[in-house]
Amino acid sequence: MEAPIDVAVIVGSLRKDSINRKVARALIALASPALNLEIVEIGDLPIYNQDRDGTAPPPPWSDFRNRIKRAQAVLFVTPEYNRSIPSPLKNAIDVGSRPYGHNVWGRKPAAVVSVSPGAIGGFGANQHVRQTMVFLNMPVMQQPEVYLGGADKYFDQAGKLAHKETEFLRTVLESFETWIKINIGQ
Q1: Predicted confidence (pLDDT) per residue in 10-48, tens digit
Q2: What tens digit of pLDDT does each residue of 58-97 get?
Q3: Count of CA atoms in the C-beta half-sphere (13 A) of 76
Q4: Does domain 5-184 have CATH number 2.60.130.10?
Q5: Average pLDDT in the 133-157 region?
Q6: How far is CA 65 from CA 28, 102, 162, in A?
Q7: Is the pTM of this model over 0.85?
């Protein structure tokens, strides 16, 4: 039996009880044994500044870059802030793509799940992440697109996924698994 595919899950919201983090945890719980989804924290990454990225970059940058290098794929789960992506997510993307010529994101299959209590489900953030990933040479899963609107109603009092979206999220994960295998040659 093959080892599970290592998938780094990047959550764009830093709140420990955010809807996005709950969705990320639900995705982890719903994933097949062929996928090992793990949240990679971004909250402690210093803001990217090229002047600090010499022979001794801040240890959190190095740790983050090494973790993303080990990952075989990346799943982004993000809210929308001001019709775009949250600054911690943009910072993580920048840390992983720098210094120039050392992009740790390149060629890693990716998927984007945007989550919002609003009706359009973070469409703007989803599209901005996709646009950035194209530039960073990440093959982004095209279908199904995942805009989870009204997501504040997806969970019961215990924080468990208690919504009809469960089957849709399983479909998303099945499609993502196929997408990853196609792109890593399995």
Answers
A1: 999 999 889 999 999 999 999 999 999 999 999 999 999
A2: 999 999 999 999 999 999 999 999 999 999 999 999 999 9
A3: 35
A4: no
A5: 94
A6: 22, 10, 35
A7: yes
Burial label for 141, CB within 10 Å (0-12, 13-18, 19+), is: buried
Alpha-carbon gap, residue 84 to 41, rounded angstroms: 20
Q: Which of 164, 167, 169 is nearest to 146 (CA)?
A: 169
Residue 182: CB atoms within 10 A of its CB come to 12
Model confidence at 5: pLDDT above 80: yes
**Cβ contacts of 27 within 8 Å, gap of 6 or more:** 9, 37, 75, 77, 113, 169, 172, 173
CB 166 within 8 A of CB 22: no
Domain ranges for the chain:
5-184
